[in-house]
């Protein structure tokens, strides 16, 4: 059964795919665009175009069945904390163990995009059948087991502006990475790791440094804090390659302390660096951290909030999670750095 929608004044000027994504919040935007291209969406009786800008009181006729659409992403069981929000953007604090987008082989598992959709539904008072006030748009991604700052656009205009800012280097990210070994960089000194990265043909999902045939990849590193046998590094990726920081640090001889792909551990426990430590009788020792020792700490981006001065920059910081902080506290007690 065909459905007919009237374009209200507040949606005048909006592009057709954007109008549909707000009207049908539980439907994937890719699915909606496909329906437009296949002629299942008419504007005033004529086949619509994805980027067609709508006018007030135009009639949008829907000829597709929503039951054919893929399921909406599910929210994770962990709460998503909003670190910053204005009318244009949000920065959320991604928890560990949660993928940013639905995973290919576990689409029913909760993800950040599902949590953002749930937040937008709650803000709009919608049950999924009523239009949204805004639809969150992820403009970059971080690994499932990495925590920290994740930038989200609230409007199509903000999404385009942020993607352009990423492209010309006006978005700066810095990560805290606990690595194996004592890095020789002097305090305050920076080093540029400028090595191409390509897919590892021997292992699916893994990347490697490649002298030729890889994509240009650059990461600036410096020492944040020192311990005996370990170093907390600050790493700022200048490009956005898959696993870039992990690959570059491992290639430099300083892999993450916990990294099953590029390091030697899946977890770290106190007994590994505290001599003579024994858990209490009858109790199994629990790891201090059992995920990547990598945290997206700081995010700087153009301030797109209405009224912000031209050229203004917003900086958002995500505090270290409790497990990461606990690991550093134990290292400071047991392995303080001595020159």
What do you see in this structure?
This protein has helices spanning 16-23, 29-37, 112-124, 156-167, 244-251, 322-334; strands at residues 3-6, 41-43, 46-47, 59-62, 81-85, 89-94, 137-138, 147-153, 172-180, 191-194, 197-199, 207-209, 218-227, 230-237, 294-302, 313-317. The mean pLDDT is 91. It is 19% helix and 25% strand. Strands 5, 6, 7, 8, 9, 10, 13, 14, 15 and 16 form a 10-stranded mixed sheet that branches. Helix 1 (16-23) packs across helix 2 (29-37). The chain folds into 3 domains: 3-68, Structural Genomics Hypothetical 15.5 Kd Protein In mrcA-pckA Intergenic Region, Chain A (Roll); 81-165, Pseudouridine synthase (2-Layer Sandwich); 171-334, 2-Layer Sandwich (Pseudouridine synthase), CATH 3.30.2350.10. It is elongated. The chain starts with a strand and ends in a 5-residue tail after the last helix. By secondary structure, it is of the alpha+beta class. A hairpin with a 2-residue loop joins strand 13 (218-227) and strand 14. The protein has 6 helices and 16 strands.
């Amino acid at each position: 059964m065909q459905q007919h929608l009237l374009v209200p004044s507040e949606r005048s000027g909006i592009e057709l795919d954007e109008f549909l994504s707000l009207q049908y919040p539980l439907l994937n935007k890719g699915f909606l665009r496909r329906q437009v291209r296949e002629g299942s969406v008419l504007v005033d009786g004529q086949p619509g175009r994805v980027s067609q800008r709508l006018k007030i009181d135009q009639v949008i006729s829907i000829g597709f069945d929503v039951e054919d659409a893929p399921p909406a992403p599910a929210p994770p069981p962990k709460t998503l904390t909003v670190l910053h929000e204005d009318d244009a953007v949000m920065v959320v604090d991604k928890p560990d163990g949660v993928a940013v987008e639905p995973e290919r082989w576990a689409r029913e598992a909760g993800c950040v995009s599902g949590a953002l959709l749930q937040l937008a539904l709650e803000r709009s008072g919608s049950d999924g059948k009523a239009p949204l006030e805004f639809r969150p748009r992820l403009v970059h991604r971080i690994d499932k087991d990495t925590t920290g700052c994740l930038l989200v656009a609230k409007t199509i205009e903000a999404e385009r502006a942020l993607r352009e800012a990423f492209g010309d280097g006006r978005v700066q990210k810095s990560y805290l990475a606990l690595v194996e070994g004592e890095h020789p960089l002097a305090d305050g000194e920076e080093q540029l790791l400028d090595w191409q990265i390509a897919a590892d043909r021997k292992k699916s999902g893994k990347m490697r440094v490649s002298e030729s045939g890889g994509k240009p990849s650059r990461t600036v590193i410096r020492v944040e804090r020192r311990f005996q046998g370990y170093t907390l590094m600050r790493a700022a990726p200048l490009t956005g390659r898959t696993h870039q920081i992990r690959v570059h640090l491992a290639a430099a001889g300083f892999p993450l302390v916990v990294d099953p792909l590029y390091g030697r551990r899946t977890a770290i426990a106190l007994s590994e660096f505290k001599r003579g430590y024994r858990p209490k009788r009858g109790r199994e020792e629990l790891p201090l951290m059992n995920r990547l020792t990598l945290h997206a700490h700081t995010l700087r981006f153009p301030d797109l909030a209405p009224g912000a001065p031209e050229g203004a920059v917003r900086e958002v910081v995500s505090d270290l999670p409790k497990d990461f902080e606990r690991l550093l506290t134990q290292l400071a007690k047991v392995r303080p750095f001595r020159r």
